[in-house]
Design a protein that fits this description.
single chain, alpha/beta, globular
Length: 83
C-alpha cells in the first residue's frame, strides 16, 4: 500500500511515518510539507491513501483536496487536523 502524508510540521510527519512503519512494515510512505510538492508526487506515482493536514502554509484544506483531484489523485483522502 502506498501512502502520501502531507503536513507542514516535520516532527509530526516523521513521528507518524515511524509509527506507521512499525505498525504496518509493508507500507511505502512518502511525505511532504507543501501542496506544490504533493501535486508533483501524485502526478508521478499512484497512492492508495493520502493523509492531509487541513491547514497547510501554502494551501487550505478544501483547495488542497481540489488540487490533488485535479492532478488525478484517486486515493482516499483522510484529513488530519489539530482542531
Amino acid at each position: 500500500m502506498n501512502v502520501l502524508m502531507i503536513d507542514d510540521h516535520v516532527m509530526f510527519l516523521q513521528g507518524m511515518k515511524n509509527l506507521l512503519s512499525v505498525l504496518v512494515p509493508e507500507l511505502r510512505v512518502e511525505t511532504t510539507g507543501e501542496m506544490t510538492n504533493a501535486a508533483q508526487l501524485v502526478a508521478l506515482a499512484e497512492f492508495d491513501l493520502v493523509l492531509l493536514d487541513w491547514h497547510l502554509a501554502d494551501c487550505d484544506g478544501e483547495e488542497s483536496i481540489r488540487r490533488l483531484r485535479d492532478v488525478g489523485c484517486m486515493a482516499r483522502i483522510v484529513v488530519l487536523s489539530g482542531e
